[in-house]
Amino acid sequence: MLTVAALAGCSSGFDATSTQDYAPSDGIVAGDGDIRVLNALVVAGEGADEGVVSMTVVNRGESSDRITAIRSDAGDVTLGGDTSLPPGAAVSFGTEEATATVTGLTKEPGQAVELTVRFAKAEPLTFRTVIVLGTDDYASLTPPASPTLSPSPTETPSETPSATETAE
């Protein structure tokens, strides 16, 4: 009985892992007050100049708010979709609901990136996360590739005689 108590005490204290927030997924968790950011990360292809922010922003408060901007140290971020945060609701980025695209991406997958989420009412949230490669589970989150224009086919004259003949 004494051994169990001694082993359990090895991880006690203020820095015990069992007392720290843990997200059993990729990305990070950040929050202040009623607003929390869950599973935040940036998805990009190798050598890509664009990346997609994937995260969920939760409003645990009793008044509505709205995400007004996202800033990054790795490029400019463009928001799209509905970024309103009703009380007790969440908005998921990287879905049809809302998008945040980092353009002019200056970092590669595997590198850290800083994001600042700005709100209409709440204080901004600044946190560091990582850029992950847009493969496997993240393949559907990468920005669509720019279409490559191919040269138009050149017309070749038909070698088949026409079906109509002119009378002489």
In short:
The chain has 1 helix and 10 strands. The chain is mainly beta and 168 residues long. The chain has a domain at 23-134: Immunoglobulin-like (Sandwich), CATH 2.60.40.
List keywords for this structure.
168 residues; Immunoglobulin-like; ten-stranded mixed β-sheet; 1 helix; 5% helix; 40% strand
Can you offer a commentary on this structure?
This protein has about 170 residues and is mainly β. It has a domain at about 25-135: Sandwich (Immunoglobulin-like), CATH 2.60.40.1890. Helix content is about 5%, strand content about 40%. It has one helix and ten strands, in the order αββββββββββ. It has one helix at about 1-10, and strands at about 30, 35-45, 50-60, 65-70, 75-80, 85, 90-95, 100-105, 110-120, 125-135. Strands 1, 2, 3, 4, 5, 6, 7, 8, 9 and 10 form a ten-stranded mixed β-sheet that branches. A hairpin with a 5-residue loop joins strand 2 (about 35-45) and strand 3. The longest helix is centred in the N-terminal third of the chain and has 8 residues, at about 1-10. It is globular, with a radius of gyration of 26 Å.
Gross morphology: globular
Instruction: Quote the CATH topology of the domain at 23-134.
Output: Immunoglobulin-like
CATH class of the domain at 23-134: Mainly Beta
Summing up helix and strand content along with how strands pair, one would put the structural category as mainly beta
